[in-house]
Amino acid sequence: MVEETVIQKILTKNQFDEATKVSLFSGGQINSVYQIGEALVLKIENELDVTPHQPEIMSLALRAGAKVPKILDFGQIDGKRYLLMSKISGRKLSEDWFSFSDEQKENLIRQIVEQLKIFHSIGFAKYSSRRPNEFDNWETAIDWLTNLDRIEVDKIAGRHREDFELVRDFYLSHKQLLYDSDPPVLVHNDLHFENILHEGGELTGIIDFDFARQAPKDYELWHLLDSLRVPKYFVEEKLEKSWENFKVGQEIAWFKKYYPELFEKKDLITRIKLYITEDIIGDLLDGASDKFHQKVDDYFRNDWLEKNLF
Question: Where do the structural domains in the chain lie, given as residue ranges?
Fold first, then answer.
């Protein structure tokens, strides 16, 4: 009921007709997302503080020529932050990926890379692992985000403690590598096939800038790679079954082919492990034990990265 009232106030503010059709998208995970009429999308923030930075970020991307939604209105009503934006036409790649030929898949990844290069052409004066917090150095920014002190070690035991200590010790031993980082640029940081739209084999847009960062460009890789490692965690529920047995084919090789500079940073595998640490700690705190242990095994005990990255 609260959200219905908020929607009505937003529609009134933007002078929509009372008969305007409003329908809920099924894919929203951390926000409620609605289609307004035929051409607009309304995102209403639920729990995480992820919308205030998006009007500026997306405006910068649009001006640089990226295919992203245009923000038409934003603000806060009855304690709910919202974004009203243009709707990008097309279907999600997550819905159609298995129907494409290798040639079509490679062409789409080439187009995704074109968009990434536009994002990464947008520079900032400071790093931000989570806006509006800004830092002069990337190591400090990631240290703040990871925040190992969130874990009360004495309260965990068994495999949970063993896995946590393995990741913690690796992080503390290597985090100084992040001090030597490329300048901060716009990083989407949530790039997966659910957030990429296409029409007739042509990329129409990239959506969902909830977790955009001011970061070195190689930070884009950890989330992209993780979404290819276990994509069933990155698609809406109705698509999970079709993705649960997915194995990486040529996808990473095509990203490397069209964006080799993204993979050239010294100690790249170590840096990606440092980046993924915050996500692993989040899974532990959220009680997502299966995800937590699988990530520790794949990234820190086994050689999933080494096998798939080089």
Answer: 2-86, 91-309
Q: Are 46 and 34 in contact (CB under 8 A)?
A: no
pLDDT of 39 higher than 60: yes
pLDDT tens-digit readout, 278-288: 999 999 999 99
Q: Are 174 and 269 in contact (CB under 8 A)?
A: no
d(CA 102, CA 233): 23
Supply the mean pLDDT for the chain.
95
The band of 310, judged by pLDDT with boundaries at 50, 70 and 90, is confident
- Tell me whether the CATH fold assigned to 2-86 matches the one assigned to 91-309: no
91-309 belongs to CATH 3.90.1200.10: yes
Task: Say whether 170 sits in a helix, a strand or coil.
Answer: helix
**Dihedral sign, Cα of residue 49, residue 281, residue 27, residue 247:** positive
- The CA distance from 14 to 25, in Å, is 21
Q: Are 310 and 264 in contact (CB under 8 A)?
A: no
pLDDT digits (tens, 9 = 90+) for 240-280: 999 999 999 999 999 999 999 999 999 999 999 999 999 99
d(CA 220, CA 276): 11
Instruction: Please give the backbone phi and psi of residue 262, each rounded to the nearest 5 degrees, phi first.
Output: -70, -20
Fold (topology level) of 2-86: Phosphorylase Kinase; domain 1 (3.30.200)
Instruction: Tell me the C-alpha distance between 233 and 231, whole Å.
Output: 5
CA distance 111 to 115: 7
